[in-house]
Amino acid sequence: MRPGDPVLAKRAGLYREARPASALVPHLLCRWIHVIPQGPALSVAVVPDGCVDLLWVRDRLVVAGPDLTAAHPVLPPGDPVAAVRFRPGAALRWLGLPMSEIAGRQVDLQEFGRPWARGLTDRIGEARTMTERMARLEGELVRVAPEIGPPAPEMALAFRWLGQGAEEAGLAALRDRLGISERSLRRRCHEAFGYGPKTLDRTLRFQRFLRLVTAGEEPGLSALAAAAGYSDQAHLTRETRRLSGLTPAVILGQLGRRDERKAA
Fold first, then answer.
1. CB within 8 A of 2, min separation 6: which ones?
2. Distance from C-alpha of 252 to C-alpha of 245, rounded to nearest angstrom
3. Nearest-CA neighbor of 12 among 74, 92, 62?
């Protein structure tokens, strides 16, 4: 890792994911807590993943819209974040507006005007610890969940389809599978994910690269590029810089699976 490089958010400080309550499984991928230990503030890279999160941070409930490129917040020590991550396309039903309206933004939950969110910030804020706040947040969402439909199955399929990365799982094949036009697919992806299918495809390909690096299954960048679905190593480097602000070699070093010098 080079001096001045931000740290991938999930590798900074203490980050823990857990399965949501059973009633929330159709709506949420996980709940998570993140805290930076004592020491200097830390610049992190929050990379795009096609998802939307609801966060308790600095005494507020904030919706983090789908990122187009990496966000680089500076996190102070000892200021924990508790959050839930919506399943792909699920936030559309909970928030009541297209995700394209909040792409790349953080918006206070109260600004959405949803009845289920009224007074929620105050009720969460009454808890004394982050564990209690997470429990209250999850409990409130469990109470409301029966009134909110799950994500559209077509968009859940689109996310899985593009996430596979196989040659036969491209955009044309996806349109054929769904029986919709290119224009309709683009509109529905903007509503559910915040951007069009081509951007979603790039985002999910980058996430495949991160998973492969974490798994430690490939011997070098050329093999990683091919396995993730990039045309070559140069393509991987361009897209990684674009989406994270980091080089593939730096990511390899941060994830701790390879020696950075061997990966370069």
1. 250
2. 14
3. 74
Q: Which sign does the torsion angle of CA 217, 172, 152, 118 carry?
A: positive
Q: In what order do the strands lie in the sheet with 14-18?
A: 14-18, 28-35, 81-86, 53-57, 60-64, 106-108
The phi, psi pair for 134, rounded to 5°, reads -60, -45
CA dist., res. 35 & res. 83, Å (int)? 12
- All residues at 6 or more sequence positions from 182 whose CB lies less than 8 Å from its CB, including other chains: 171, 175
Q: Letter for the amino acid at 155?
A: M
d(CA 120, CA 77): 26
Extract the tokens encoding 152.
Answer: 């559209």
Q: What is the pLDDT of residues 217-264, one digit of tens each?
A: 667 899 999 999 999 999 999 999 999 999 999 999 888 554 333 333
Q: How far apart are CA 75 and CA 8, in angstroms?
A: 12
Rounded Cα distance, 175 and 248, in Å:
31
What tokens were used for 5?
A: 């490089």
